[in-house]
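Reopening: Actin-related protein 2/3 complex subunit 5 still failing for me.
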Amino acid sequence: MAATEAFVEADNAEAIITRIEHKSRTIDSLLKHSKPVESLQVRIPFLCHIFSTIKRVLIVIVVHIALMAIKDVGGLLSSLDPEYYDILMKYLYRGLSTGDRLTCDQCLHIHEKLTERAGLGCILRSLADTVNTV
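Support: Ran it again with your exact input. Result attached.
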């Protein structure tokens, strides 16, 4: 158990909870067998991964709430620094992936206005960007 496992990204809550329960049982087992070093080798990377996942999910939720509250898209885009257009486009695609009708309608409306302002290159850059993941 000294080697750490590669973490697999999970998009749904059930898979994340299952992984947490599995790792918790592994850590408990190592502690019961008086292997605190091995326990830490499993625990520390796992906790870092959990906190990172929670942070990403919370950011997506906050951005989703903000996108749904937007009434003046033109005002949003004029106040937003153009360097953030590509990241906004990534969040719009994330919103579209929910399949929720209201969310998709709002995201498509913003997408249309953003594409008019930023051009088609914004779409390509957001799809090709591997650094800013949402």
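The CA atoms of residues 64 and 95 lie 7 Å apart. If you still see a failure, please send the error message rather than a screenshot.
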